[in-house]
Every structure is written in structure tokens, then in C-alpha cells.
Design goal:
The protein has 263 residues and is α/β, with parallel strands linked by helices. The chain has one domain (10-14, 41-250): Rossmann fold (3-Layer(aba) Sandwich). The chain has 9 helices and 6 strands. Helix 1 (40-46) crosses helix 4 (107-131) and helix 3 runs antiparallel to helix 4. The structure holds adenosine-5'-diphosphate and magnesium ion. Magnesium ion is lined by residues 3-5, 60-61, 139.
Length: 263
């Protein structure tokens, strides 16, 4: 399923977006005009794009918050966001997808809706943030589509590749953190998590979730330059440390801020 960070895109420094689904830098969805991947080259020149991937209950949302806090402490301009969703228009599509309303139309229709949501999210939230030099951390992204609609949803990979090329273009993540956990453990965590009931994807059976795990691991094995597999079974602090090591090794970090006063 898609993520459920408790909030739509927001500045990590504790400055929530003015209203749900409206990123601080974003405008109304209808503004997302022009070439779908226009501006990507400029975006790549400045900000950093990190995605969290993995199955249900792997710890993505928990660890995304922690990473955003640590980066903000370093003085990084951080934007946290999620998929499906992350812009006003995409949040509407999120509801259609996660409620299960689109399920009767089949995997292709769902993949097309994910693509539409992603195009808007990129145009309205992600690319503008990268262009101003922010680090964008996204809870799920294109790998989830490959895993959920591809491997587990039985859609032709060539079709998914075409959709991905048309939506993502050059705005590929600099780093993808794959939190890996056995499907049973992740689902048990997700079930114990407080909040709303299971969504359309969480309601799928164990076989589906096992396929997802394999699909995510296969993506990471194919793209080791972009993906780092993190053991999601560890204690939260251990996971946080592994993530921080991966981020600092792969992406140059600004120096830590000096404390202005001494104890
Ligand atoms: N490393 C961990 N060990 C045990 N429980 C965890 C760990 N990370 C997260 N959790 C708990 O598991 C549940 C799912 O975590 P969450 O971050 O929402 O996962 P995801 O976003 O990947 O679905 C939450 O209740 C969270 O507090
Ligand atoms: Mg989550």
C-alpha cells in the first residue's frame, strides 16, 4: 500500500503545509501544465531526491520522519512527501486508489491512476522543491508501482516502464532506501498500528505481500548504485543508524550546525 505518513507534504523543520495536501511550495493542481518532465535537469543540479520503499509495516514512515529531522538539524531544507499523493490533485487520486474504488477496473487502470498522481506530484511538489535546492524525501515512489502493479499485479513490465518514463523522466531518486522485512512481520506491525483500517493493498493476501518483497529486492539488486537495502527487522534506532550511514556515504551532507551556546 501506499504510505500513510500522517501528513501530506510538509517542511521537515516543523512547518506544516498550510492545508492537507498542499505543499508549502506548491500551487493548485491545475497549474501542473507543460511538459511532464520539464525542468528535471535544473532540478538535478541542486536538490537531492531520496525515496523510501518497502512493504507494509517495514518502518518507512517512521524512518522517513527521523531522517528528515536529522537533515533539518544539519540545516538542510527538507520537504517530506508521499505517494500516492503529495499534491492536492494526487491526494484526491490517492483516495480513489486506497479506498479500493479503482480496483474493479483492474491493474492497468490502477497503474494509470498512479501515473497521473505521480505526474502531478512531480510537477507541483517534487521538482519545484528540488529546483530551489531542497532535499525531497518521499514515502514510496516509482518502485512501489513496479512492485505492486508489476510483480504482484501482473502488469507487463514494458507497459510500466513506458508509464514511468512518461511521468518520472529524469527525476529519478538519487538514493532509494529499501526497508526489507518478511511480509508476515510487516503485516503484523501494520495491523497493530493505530489509525484507520487496512487499505486496498493491505487487504491483499500473504502471497501478494511475499511477491512484493521479492520484487523490491530484485529492483535493488538490479540498481545497486541507487538502492540500499536496510534490514527493517532491527530495532528502530539501529535502522535509523544504518539509514544515516547510507545517506552520508552516498550523498554529501552539509556540515553539522555548531551550537551557539555552551552548557
Ligand atoms: N524497527 C521497528 N521495530 C518495531 N516496530 C517498528 C519498527 N519501525 C516501525 N515500527 C512500528 O511498526 C508500525 C509500522 O511502521 P511504519 O513506519 O508505519 O511502517 P510503513 O510506513 O513502512 O508501513 C508502526 O506502528 C511503527 O511504530
Ligand atoms: Mg507508512
Amino acid at each position: 500500500m501506499p504510505p500513510r505518513p500522517s501528513s501530506p507534504p510538509r517542511r521537515a523543520a516543523g512547518k506544516p503545509a498550510p492545508e492537507a495536501g498542499v505543499p508549502a511550495a506548491g500551487k493548485a493542481t491545475g497549474k501542473a501544465t507543460g511538459p511532464v518532465f520539464g525542468g528535471a535537469a535544473a532540478a538535478r543540479a541542486h536538490g537531492r531526491f531520496i525515496t523510501f520503499e518497502g512493504g507494509e509495516g517495514a518502518g518507512k514512515s517512521t524512518q522517513l520522519r527521523r531522517l528528515a529531522e536529522k537533515l533539518a538539524e544539519r540545516g538542510v531544507d527538507v520537504v517530506t512527501t508521499r505517494e500516492p499523493g503529495g499534491s492536492p490533485g494526487a491526494e484526491i487520486i490517492r483516495h480513489v486508489l486506497l479506498s479500493g474504488a479503482a480496483k474493479p477496473f483492474g491493474s492497468f487502470a490502477e497503474a494509470a491512476l498512479f501515473a497521473a498522481a505521480r505526474a502531478d506530484h512531480l510537477a507541483v511538489t517534487i521538482r519545484p522543491a528540488l529546483e530551489r535546492g531542497a532535499w525531497v524525501i518521499c514515502d514510496r515512489f516509482a518502485d512501489s508501482t513496479r512492485a505492486y502493479q508489476g510483480a504482484a499485479g501482473n502488469l507487463d513490465p514494458a507497459l510500466l516502464d513506458a508509464l514511468e518514463a512518461a511521468t518520472v523522466g529524469d527525476t529519478r531518486p538519487d538514493l532509494t532506501l529499501l526497508l526489507d522485512i518478511p511480509a508476515e512481520e510487516g503485516l503484523a506491525r501494520a495491523a497493530a498500528r493505530s489509525g484507520t483500517g487496512a487499505d486496498r493493498f493491505e487487504r491483499e493476501g500473504l502471497t501478494f505481500h511475499r511477491q512484493l518483497r521479492d520484487a523490491f529486492l530484485a529492483i535493488a539488486a538490479r540498481e545497486p548504485a541507487r538502492c540500499v537495502v536496510i534490514d527493517g527487522r532491527d530495532e528502530p534506532d539501529v535502522v535509523t543508524k544504518a539509514i544515516w550511514q547510507a545517506v552520508s556515504k552516498r550523498l554529501p551532507l552539509p556540515r553539522a550546525r555548531r551550537r551557539s551556546s555552551r552548557a
